[in-house]
Amino acid sequence: MNILKSITIISFSLLLISCFGFTNKKETQPKATYIANQNTKVAYFASGCFWCVEAIFESVNGVEEAVSGYAGGTTLNPSYRSIGTGKTGHAETVAVYYNPDKVSFKTLVTVFFGSQDPTTKNGQHPDYGSQYRSIAFYKTDAEKQIIEKAINQLNKDVYNGKIATEVTKFKKFYKAEEYHQDFERRNPNQGYVKAVSVPRLNKFKKKFPQLLKDDVH
């Protein structure tokens, strides 16, 4: 086998287990339009591939919907392809619509930190680059304080001061292309989903069974 062919095979294999490896824009059934009620609140989190993060938050009791998108940068109207360059400033982000009577922002922050390695700068294995960095967005001073308190406690008790998560004032969220929405559920046999997304979700479910919806266990 010549060197060029070997490189091609290796590159293709890496794409199969990369969040950026799937760029098939085939038509999919549009995700049902979610209509928030007057009591619904929205929180925004980034911690690696949004296919994984969306599935994790949608498993949590009190979360009504999670939407994949882009936030944290200044580039207008980013796309999946443009943020993949790592030059837009945006990160793959999930908008979490939740009922505060069933789940608190504090609990969502617990889910956020408990479902990733927050000490990894610019990535979550196997995806690396600024577009996969860990960000906890806040809209109010109270939310910022909850995030910072969680970081201080985790740095003291677990991570020895090594948390790399950014704490960022929320500005704007851009919804991702339709084929990314509910990606894990729609594509159970896709290589990355089987190798990364499902194991990450299952690890979270095992760690926090008390936070799951009844039909998720």
From TrEMBL:
GO molecular function: L-methionine:thioredoxin-disulfide S-oxidoreductase activity; peptide-methionine (S)-S-oxide reductase activity
Keywords linked to the UniProt accession: Oxidoreductase
Active site: 49
Keyword Oxidoreductase: yes
Domain Peptide methionine sulphoxide reductase MsrA stretches: 43-193
Entry's EC annotation: 1.8.4.11
Catalyzed reactions: [thioredoxin]-disulfide + L-methionine + H2O = L-methionine (S)-S-oxide + [thioredoxin]-dithiol; L-methionyl-[protein] + [thioredoxin]-disulfide + H2O = L-methionyl-(S)-S-oxide-[protein] + [thioredoxin]-dithiol
InterPro entries associated with the record: Met_Sox_Rdtase_MsrA_dom (IPR002569), Met_Sox_Rdtase_MsrA_sf (IPR036509)
Keyword Endoplasmic reticulum listed: no
NCBIfam families in the cross-refs: msrA
Function: Has an important function as a repair enzyme for proteins that have been inactivated by oxidation. Catalyzes the reversible oxidation-reduction of methionine sulfoxide in proteins to methionine.
Family the entry assigns: Belongs to the MsrA Met sulfoxide reductase family.
Protein name: Peptide methionine sulfoxide reductase MsrA
Naturally occurring in which organism (per UniProt): Polaribacter butkevichii
